[in-house]
Amino acid sequence: MPEQSDMGVEADSSSDGRPLRRLRDLDPRPPVWDRSALLRRDCPFCGTRGRPHVERPDGLTVCLCPLCSAAFISPAPAADEVARFYRGYRGRHRVEAFADTPYAHRASIPTTAEPERLAHLIRSRRALDDFRVQVIASHLKLTGARVMDLGCGVGQLLNGLHSLGATVEGIDPDPDAVEFARSSLGLDGVRLGSHADVDGTARFDLVVLQDVLEHVLDPRALFTRAAHLLTPGGFLYLWTPNATLAAEQDQPLVLRGDYEHLQFASTRTILRLAADLALEPIHLECIGFLGSLEDVAHPHNASPPRTAILRARIRRLPGVRQLARIRNSLRSSPRERAGTYHVFALLRRPLPRA
Ligand SMILES: [Zn+2]
């Protein structure tokens, strides 16, 4: 991995000396970092020196990696700042900041502060309604499979995989999320900590990196750890915001929201990492939004606050959830899979040759 060097904040200019283009704002919840403690870094996936590309709406510089086509923030927040931020991530940051914005309906999404509502919501979802679980299940028999979710959050995916017969474990740095997963979902295999705290001798049939590679300062170390935990024939499932088209687009959506994201892998990044760790690519897809992110892709569809609050109340009426579930299961998959916001990959550790 590249060493981080403290060179302070570099001037935000492109390689030809002109000021960087600034992207249009979208997200009402920028994390507050200590700007005086930002650290310059090279590509966190391959160690190559990046070139400044655009200024993100939160004022941080997005660099592009000429070797693996990743996009990454440099200078970036220091490790202790990032750790502090994630200790209250799922409850406070993900939802509260949406109140009084066009995304107010998101403020009605239950958090760990309302464990009963959140548990009810998670339990009402069928695991196989998620097309990502469908892809995983088409390659791996989940009954009896041993699963580790690195950065499992409140345990939603683990709850679904458990319902399909898997033995599930997870680790997350947010104490509220871990307490919820254990107490409200009964997931005893979820623990507080980071990927480095997972027993290095344990082996799993499926290791999950869903919405996590973009959040850590050292994604290569996380990826390497995940690969190390695979049993021969085991699968690494990866879902992360996609840098593949970021260099070509004028206002790439992927760089304009969720400013806690510190880097963005491309398909080339994933294939390089897989090759470095001798993993076989089984599935690789650039893929759009799940329903909950659609309003960010199409801001003109976002409901005004009053309508959104009314809709949230209607959703709580008896029977409405069941109807919504039927509607969701009938929705055409192509619509769900339009767009290119994420990279979705399934990689396999090969079986030893006989
Ligand atoms: Zn790179």
Structure overview:
It is a single chain. This protein has 13 helices and 12 strands. By secondary structure, it is an alpha/beta fold. The chain has a 7-stranded mixed beta sheet with strand order 7-6-5-8-9-12-11, sandwiched between helices. Strand 6 (167-172), helix 7 and strand 7 (190-192) form a beta-alpha-beta unit. The longest helix is centred in the C-terminal third of the chain and has 11 residues, at 305-315. Mean pLDDT is 83; it is low at 1-11 and 290-305. The chain binds zinc ion.
Following the backbone from N to C, one meets helices and strands in this order, namely EEEEHHHHHEHEHEEHEEHEHHHHE
Number of strands: 12
Strand order of the largest sheet: 7-6-5-8-9-12-11
How big a fraction of the residues is strand? 15-25%
Query: How helical, in percent, are the residues?
Result: 25-40%
The major β-sheet equals:
7 strands, mixed
Which regions have little confidence, pLDDT < 50, spanning 5+ residues? 1-11, 290-305
CATH-defined topology of the largest domain: Rossmann fold
Distance between the termini: 34 Å
Q: Please tell me what the overall shape is.
A: globular
Structural class: alpha/beta
What is the number of independent domains? 2
Described by its quaternary structure, the protein is single chain
What is the level 1 CATH name of the largest domain? Alpha Beta
